[in-house]
Amino acid sequence: MISRRDFITQSILGTAALNAPGWAMASNADKAAKPNIVFILCDDLGYGDLSCYGHPIIQTPCLDALAQEGVQLTDCYASAPVCSPSRAGIMTGRTPTRCRIMIGSRQNRASI
Known about the structure:
By secondary structure, the chain is an all-alpha fold. The chain has four helices and no strands. The longest helix has 30 residues, at about 5-35.
């Protein structure tokens, strides 16, 4: 006679084995549908500081080629006006205060 624990284990393994091909196909389809995204973050670089956005003096040929092949974004919203909190907002998708990174706080100054 089979024990209840063995029955449950075999049932779970059998169900997983039957559904495994479906999981593999779904994950391959998801990978094919997702675009490749390259996120470039530069400190102290303004919107008009690249030649692809119309700067008359500064030449940025590599970034210009990247902009021609990809998508140029013209609107941007920052989670904070300074570096550390805005990076925390980008990496986590949360407001910087929820990550406990605040603008001009003693906590930030003490860690520097």
